[in-house]
Design goal:
Blueprint: E1 9-16, E2 22-29, H1 32-41, E3 45-51, H2 65-80, H3 85-94, H4 99-113, H5 118-122, H6 131-143, H7 146-201, H8 209-245, H9 247-259, H10 263-284, H11 289-299, H12 303-317, H13 322-329, H14 334-346, H15 349-408
Antiparallel strand pairs: 1-2, 1-3
Helix pairs in contact: 2-3, 2-7, 3-4, 6-7, 7-8, 7-10, 7-15, 8-15, 9-10, 10-11, 10-15, 11-12, 12-13, 13-14, 14-15
């Protein structure tokens, strides 16, 4: 049965002509590569080409890690169904709503059409596909089992992103609630309390101590609030810039994170899960253990574990067992070490590491759920004390005045 011919579509383009002038227009072609080839024949260079109806400004979009995970799963599904690689790119691209991701997928197709392997095409987009992703796809191509490898990569990406999203969601909830509480408190102190203060000033009586404290805070915030806001903003900006530019500062933060109560335990378990999942995936793909450990170090996400994994890599390179080297670092839980030992002895290291990853992912889920459940009543209590305390302090003079009127009556 003959393969279906590609349908000719209209592309819009922007480029530079032979005189160096910017030109734009439309060109017909079966795909982006063919459209660019026709433009080159016309003397138009550096052409940006898009299907008609898709904005050229879509290049400014964003591709998330989850977009990459979805793309990998879709490519795996297409190839398992027997769809050729190039046709899989087209089918997946047509179903994407993210214009930037669609551009990346079509770009991958163009590079593969030009004679590159899938792995080499991925290397053209290092901001979206890391070395681990590329090496796994390369291993799949070399072994002739690309669809199987894509399935493993998709599972790896999905589980890794699900773990990250779980932690982010747990952290985002209290941060959002506390931010809203801070905004409400500031509004009360700056807008509402001064109105009460004017009213109380006409009483001529001494105000209760809590009311005096609240009015004092309100007056101070009105006088120095802008300065405080600038200071807080400056500290936040300095922190962000220092974290971005200083590796030593980031390394120190990583060490502090692991020592935090509750959160430190969650970070440790999440890191162990990433290490085990990455090592299981790479080892199952036939990647040599030393290279696989390098990928694990990069995926760890914490300098303490990065340094430990690199030490394990050096030890394994000199002939030591993986289990012995993991135990010698002193930062891997006994359960993870024992499961790895069983895997090494039984010759099923990848399967056992996969079980370790699943176990610690479940531990992270349980810890995050427990943290969220514990924080909800604490946050509610905090809001009740702060906002309720402000309101009670402002109404105390009114209550006292009411009692005085009743007593006089």
């Amino acid at each position: 049965m003959a393969a279906a011919t590609e349908q000719t579509v209209t592309f819009v383009y922007e480029g530079v002509d032979k005189k160096g002038l910017k030109v734009k227009g439309e060109v017909a072609g079966k795909n982006e590569a063919q459209a660019k080839a026709q433009l080159r024949k016309q003397g138009i260079q550096n052409a940006k080409v898009k299907k008609k109806g898709m904005s050229l400004l879509a290049r400014g979009g964003k591709v998330s890690a989850m977009d990459v995970a979805i793309f990998t799963r879709q490519m795996s599904t297409m190839m398992r169904a027997g769809v050729p690689l190039l046709q899989s790119f087209d089918i997946v691209a047509d179903g994407l709503s993210n214009a930037k991701m669609k551009e990346v997928v079509l770009g991958l197709k163009t590079h593969v059409e030009g004679g590159n392997s899938f792995a080499d095409a991925l290397k053209k987009y290092p901001e979206y596909f890391d070395d681990l992703f590329v090496s796994l796809v390369n291993a799949g191509e070399q072994s002739g089992a690309l669809e199987t490898m894509l399935d493993r990569v998709a599972t790896y990406k999905e589980k890794s992103e699900a773990l990250k999203l779980k932690i982010k969601k747990a952290m985002k909830y209290p941060a959002t609630v506390l931010t809203i509480a801070a905004i409400v408190t500031v509004i009360l102190l700056v807008k509402v309390v001064p109105t009460f203060a004017e009213l109380f000033g006409s009483f001529g009586a001494e105000l209760p101590k809590p009311t005096q404290v609240v009015i004092g805070i309100s007056e101070w915030l009105q006088a120095w609030g802008i300065v405080v806001a600038f200071i807080i903003g400056g500290i936040g900006f300095a922190f962000g810039e220092t974290k971005k530019r200083s590796k030593a500062f980031r390394d120190q933060l990583d060490k502090i994170y692991l020592k935090l109560p509750i959160a430190g335990d969650i970070i440790m378990k999440a890191t162990i899960a990433r290490y085990s999942r990455t090592l299981a995936t790479t080892f199952a793909a036939g990647v040599p253990l030393i290279e696989a450990l390098r990928s694990c170090a990069d995926a760890a996400g914490n300098v303490v574990y990065y340094n430990a994994i690199m030490k394990i890599r050096d030890d394994v390179a000199t002939g030591q067992q993986l289990t012995f080297s993991m135990r010698s670092t002193g930062i891997f839980p006994a359960m993870a070490v024992q499961m790895t030992a069983i895997g090494e002895e039984a010759g099923s290291l990848d399967a056992m590491l996969d079980k370790v990853a699943t176990y610690y992912e479940a531990e992270v889920d349980a810890a995050v759920d427990g943290l969220t459940s514990m924080m909800e009543p604490l946050i509610m209590a905090f809001l009740g004390i702060v906002v309720g305390g402000l309101l009670i302090a402002m109404y105390m003079p009114i209550f006292q005045m009411g009692k005085a009127i009743e007593g006089g009556g």
